[in-house]
Amino acid sequence: MNGRVIPYDIADLTLAEQGRKRIAWAAREMPVLRLLRERFERERPLEGLRIVACVHVTTETANLAYALRAAGATPVICASNPLSTQDDVAAALVADGFHVYARRGEDAETYYRHINWALDHEPHLIIDDGADVVTTVHRDRRDVLQTVIGSTEETTTGVIRLRALARDDLLAFPAIAVNDAMTKHLFDNRYGTGQSTIDAILRATNLLLAGKTVVVAGYGWCGRGIALRARGMGAHVIVTEVDPVRALEAVMDGYRVLPMREAARVGDLFVTATGNLHVIDREHFLVMKNGAIVCNAGHFNVEINLEALAEMAVERIVHRPFVEEYVLPDGRAIVVLAEGRLVNLAVAEGHPASVMDMSFANQALACVYLAQRGRQLPADVYPVPAEIDREIAQLKLESMGIAIDRLTPEQEAYLVSWQHGT
Amino acid sequence: MNGRVIPYDIADLTLAEQGRKRIAWAAREMPVLRLLRERFERERPLEGLRIVACVHVTTETANLAYALRAAGATPVICASNPLSTQDDVAAALVADGFHVYARRGEDAETYYRHINWALDHEPHLIIDDGADVVTTVHRDRRDVLQTVIGSTEETTTGVIRLRALARDDLLAFPAIAVNDAMTKHLFDNRYGTGQSTIDAILRATNLLLAGKTVVVAGYGWCGRGIALRARGMGAHVIVTEVDPVRALEAVMDGYRVLPMREAARVGDLFVTATGNLHVIDREHFLVMKNGAIVCNAGHFNVEINLEALAEMAVERIVHRPFVEEYVLPDGRAIVVLAEGRLVNLAVAEGHPASVMDMSFANQALACVYLAQRGRQLPADVYPVPAEIDREIAQLKLESMGIAIDRLTPEQEAYLVSWQHGT
Amino acid sequence: MNGRVIPYDIADLTLAEQGRKRIAWAAREMPVLRLLRERFERERPLEGLRIVACVHVTTETANLAYALRAAGATPVICASNPLSTQDDVAAALVADGFHVYARRGEDAETYYRHINWALDHEPHLIIDDGADVVTTVHRDRRDVLQTVIGSTEETTTGVIRLRALARDDLLAFPAIAVNDAMTKHLFDNRYGTGQSTIDAILRATNLLLAGKTVVVAGYGWCGRGIALRARGMGAHVIVTEVDPVRALEAVMDGYRVLPMREAARVGDLFVTATGNLHVIDREHFLVMKNGAIVCNAGHFNVEINLEALAEMAVERIVHRPFVEEYVLPDGRAIVVLAEGRLVNLAVAEGHPASVMDMSFANQALACVYLAQRGRQLPADVYPVPAEIDREIAQLKLESMGIAIDRLTPEQEAYLVSWQHGT
Amino acid sequence: MNGRVIPYDIADLTLAEQGRKRIAWAAREMPVLRLLRERFERERPLEGLRIVACVHVTTETANLAYALRAAGATPVICASNPLSTQDDVAAALVADGFHVYARRGEDAETYYRHINWALDHEPHLIIDDGADVVTTVHRDRRDVLQTVIGSTEETTTGVIRLRALARDDLLAFPAIAVNDAMTKHLFDNRYGTGQSTIDAILRATNLLLAGKTVVVAGYGWCGRGIALRARGMGAHVIVTEVDPVRALEAVMDGYRVLPMREAARVGDLFVTATGNLHVIDREHFLVMKNGAIVCNAGHFNVEINLEALAEMAVERIVHRPFVEEYVLPDGRAIVVLAEGRLVNLAVAEGHPASVMDMSFANQALACVYLAQRGRQLPADVYPVPAEIDREIAQLKLESMGIAIDRLTPEQEAYLVSWQHGT
């Protein structure tokens, strides 16, 4: 690392004070990370390491940054999504001495410039969210491979990309699939995305969900969370899927399951959460009801084919912030929220802090794990060790004042034995 | 009415364009009112009548104002709650020629001055929301009694006050309890307040509801809606009640029922919806958990005893808009949302338009009813006629594309007969 | 009353011991009735009165009979439904000295003969369930009018028939609509019928409800309970209605609402709860899926047009008890449960005891009320007095160990006042 | 195999006709197995193989037996649980030429004698349910190891025992963990056990679940299903767990989580589903409410410490079939259902056919897999191949008339690519 690095690039440093207050508010809901931070201050397990964290720049990731610094690391932060950056948080972090490269609403060119500026710090560890940094490193910035020990990955989408890299023998360092930790994906995607997607839709539209037909595309953890919360708000929920086992689960959970072609005709609101592209496509816009609303809760803004919709439209009207209406030649209007980007981050505040608490505790502990053992690991995609999972869950329960049972010695013996019969 | 009237008093006329767009957006979700408006334009059933509408000045009431004007009336609008006024809507209405007296955040003195300025128009009809206008008329402005034909009342609280007036033989004109219409209270309080209260809590706090213990005070229609939606978001819900029948319903609906004294010890979030005062009082603050959040979904800001809390507190910190922390001498913090005012109106956008659609269709048709028959009615509190209810429900279903069964002649005959046996 | 009365007519007296045990089991879940019985033993409020109770002869009504006898009355029991009689209970009651006329599966002729034998006792009070006794009295047995003080009615259907009688000025004595008590219809129909209908369907068919499309005809209290529980078991629920307000509530509660003609095509299981006739008719059988199952949870077995189905069928096969398959000419099979009779009584055990506890506490207290004031009341249909409702709810809560809040003097004063403002 | 085998041992051959009807009824809900059976008749993939199937002898396993025979095998059937045998089904199978060793209520000695008689057939394949046959083979009947190709295992408990055997290098042949197939454990345990446990509790007790506090011990797939359905019936559900991740999921799903010691004080009904022993133990009985009901939904009857309860009790009363009350010295009564055995099998009819359909399709296809490749597989525990899972789910959806989306070539390309970015 040399002197040429850009120290930071953010929107407005005067927002720092507001950002600081909001970061403190989020900290209240992040007891696990607070506990780790206290331990890190004593143990300094990341002493001297530079970490590029490509994350949604929010109050919650700010708390991760403080924890990493408490562990002795120098975090360098860039945005993982142009629309999710909270400019006041970015300001607060810069005011507190962090390197931050993130401006809400930045264009694609700036987005990749920011990633490159972050990589100029020659990181030892990479915290990634969608694998854009890792992909950039492998494609364009192989110069930093000499310092990188390994990376962690936050999202399903990113893990898929990492696995593709590993399968093609292209992955150059070990990567921890933080997304696959139980205390991450079981909670973050289901409870976090579930609630925050509903929150975002309400903020954008103030629509009454009760009595509406909501079509959820994809019945993975995110889709399950969204379907469950939409039903919890009184909506009639339809699920679309490509996987027969998941589709059958959706049926058994009491949802209607239809192909998108049929669902498109009856939905009032559509939410995509598949990790795939064009799950809502031209053929679906052609049959949607007048006034149908579409939005995306998947990582990338490719799930809704907005290019096709834009070509079809004769007029586009912005009604409220994040609410754009595409008027079709036959007079029908299709309403798109947040330009098809991750709606919970673009319109609401992303996952609630108490969910991020566990995800980021995983990130922090995965970084420590890589710092300690990463140099010995062959380049591949690794799960988060199970003991990290249990530790985080136990800390979380304790922070909620909840005690659980422990196995008695008699019960432990029973579980390991095979000699008991009917 | 003479020339001395103040034409309007609002915050910022330049917001009119934004307000207009948002009013149009809301109109999409108000198909019943749109249909009535079209009929009113033909029939002009309120020709020449002045109507003082003391309402939450929002995009939805704006649509009511347009419908009333289409019917031939001159609506005069004042705010029914100092915190709920949407200044851009007020601006749009003034720009369109309405008399509006409403500024967001106005103090109590301004609030009553606005009511008085509205009454200076010497209305024929009063649309009230909490009975503040009717109370003011009876106490201070008996001069307008010569023009007033009657009033309509939107809220449970207001109806209680009107009934008290009628019981004491003080009511000077007929009042229609719009709140009691099935298409109002069955939908507005349950589905509207239910969703918008959750919406407001999320906007104010970004709290993860899943896994939280939410205490709902009161199991009337509002409380039921809030409890149902809180559970729908994954919360563990406790209900408090004073009525044994309602308490038993809450139990049977699967909620825990506790006295507030016990609920206070375990709740993470408290929502009051009782219509009564001090349901959360000093004794409850004394035992709440550190960080407990309290808010109010009832009409008046008396349900939480904030005076007591302020006296107990050694410090007050505003964390985010609408989020104020009261620090107690023992270090515990109690967080109050929106100063204890109606949280869904103060923090979110009030009821979604599609709920207000039915409430305001009731208001509009109740005004027509009073215009046609009000002068013949003795001063008393009256229900909305049942045929109005059925008409509104039918229009709403049609607007959603939903058909229902009709009784066959054979079935109608069966229902009226008593001669069938086992 | 003379010596000519038949003392009893039941199936098998040797079942008495089994019946006694089951009655004792039910008593555990009937704490309100137990409390009343203890009070009745001291106060003897029905001393010397003969009461014809036309009820489902079950363990729960047996407990009512004991309570009435404890109050000093002589209960005379006949069945209100030929399929619901539990022969062991009838035996236990006879063994304990009661007059009982009920045999499971009795034909229509026997059914009415039993009613007449019961009436031979010249009752002072009638407890009715569907108004068959009251109808018989008015049509065929006007001789008993000289002793009858009044009657109570358990069901919605019966109340409709009584109101029809009253409207035509034919009702000869006062009748208490026990069905309309809040502690009856809010609990009995919703929670009792809801659970026991599901219970009956499972016992009859062992069908997996998860993933099935269940069509509920009627969204009154019974229909709501059934829809809620079917959804609670994982079914996808469709509601049919003729009332637009109820239909709209069903939509807002998240159900699909369709006309029966469309629902018939997609349902796997149909449950009628409308109180009307032929809600499932020939036209619906014509389009149902092969293997569709139909059953009835309404009072009378007229809701499904079984005559039409029998005419259409080329073969009928009984698969399991209560499960009859009608094979249509095109090879499709329609499965009918319990011959279209009240499925929860015919197949399962009727309402659980803890629901009946409140209904029958209402019956007992309504009898006391009639004994005390019935002779002064004009012939009409009356509600259960509100204080009875509150008393029963309070007793029930106490029996569950649940305490609730009480209004403070300050709160009571607030509620009656109209002088508080914003 | 020689002539000394006992051909069958069942309770009553005259029940065959009734059994045959019920087997046919179950077949209607088993479309996947029906399809496989048709294919097997053409392909005969198990020609000449003897299969010992130790299963719950029910209408559903009867259908599995027919499918296996259609494939060319000779199934030999013994009971996997003394209380679950349906004697009419056993009779129908014998009447149709199968070897069956099963009598409802047989004692432990008979149970193992039946297993041994079945093993006398010298099977090539073993279908096991709890690993009792495999354990017996390894311990006492090593003589049959010469013919056995491999086994399949239906339950979680059995898989745990097999893994223990494999870990100790004692397993003598390959075993397929059918329980771990997604189309088995995701459906069978969650939806099947969930519903049938509720069904059994209602049949045994006729208890109103609404308003009751239900304690579910264990939040694995079975526990989740039971908790979900109990809540769906209106109960207030408390979960106990020893695993912090599962406990946290239960909290986030809106349940209260308590240690059993505390839950024991407040529960009305307890259901164990942990797979462990004595999860309800002496210390819990000591604090339970009078009238508390306990039952078990786990595989073995060890989860409730009935020996301890029997020692504590001063009296035992059987109230209804399967309902036994233990009276404690202080007068409190604890009610035990079905002697602590698997309540859904002992009291109700086990899993509904449509769930078993998928489990047994897995069993049948796992047998075919072992027949084709088992001789080449080292002795170990193997998962069901993923393509079997997808095939079964797809067949099931088709049988329900449900179509789902398919990936477009564009989407397939997207999913495998790692080169797409933000």
Automatic annotation (TrEMBL), chains A, B, C, D:
Q: What is its EC number?
A: 3.13.2.1
Q: Name one GO biological process term.
A: L-homocysteine biosynthetic process
Citing just one GO molecular function, the answer is: adenosylhomocysteinase activity
InterPro entries in alphabetical order: Adenosylhomocyst_ase-like_sf (IPR042172), Adenosylhomocysteinase-like (IPR000043), Ado_hCys_hydrolase_NAD-bd (IPR015878), NAD(P)-bd_dom_sf (IPR036291), S-Ado-L-homoCys_hydrolase_CS (IPR020082)
Q: Which residues form a coiled coil?
A: none
Q: How, per the record, is the cofactor bound?
A: Binds 1 NAD(+) per subunit.
- Enumerate the subcellular locations listed in this protein's record, separating them with semicolons: Cytoplasm
Q: Which Gene3D superfamilies match?
A: Adenosylhomocysteinase-like (3.40.50.1480), NAD(P)-binding Rossmann-like Domain (3.40.50.720)
Catalytic activity, as annotated: S-adenosyl-L-homocysteine + H2O = L-homocysteine + adenosine
Involved pathway(s): Amino-acid biosynthesis; L-homocysteine biosynthesis; L-homocysteine from S-adenosyl-L-homocysteine: step 1/1
- Please tell me whether the keyword Cytoplasm is annotated for this protein: yes
PROSITE patterns for the chain: ADOHCYASE_1, ADOHCYASE_2
Q: Which residues form the S-adenosyl-L-homocysteine hydrolase NAD binding domain?
A: 189-350
Keywords, alphabetical: Cytoplasm, Hydrolase, NAD, One-carbon metabolism
Name the coenzymes or cofactors required.
NAD(+)
Q: Which SMART domains does the annotation name?
A: AdoHcyase, AdoHcyase_NAD
One cellular component term (GO) for this entry is: cytosol
**Family recorded in the similarity comment:** Belongs to the adenosylhomocysteinase family.
Q: Provide the function of this protein.
A: May play a key role in the regulation of the intracellular concentration of adenosylhomocysteine.
Q: What is this protein called?
A: Adenosylhomocysteinase
* Species per Swiss-Prot/TrEMBL record: Thermomicrobium roseum (strain ATCC 27502 / DSM 5159 / P-2)
Q: Which gene encodes it?
A: ahcY
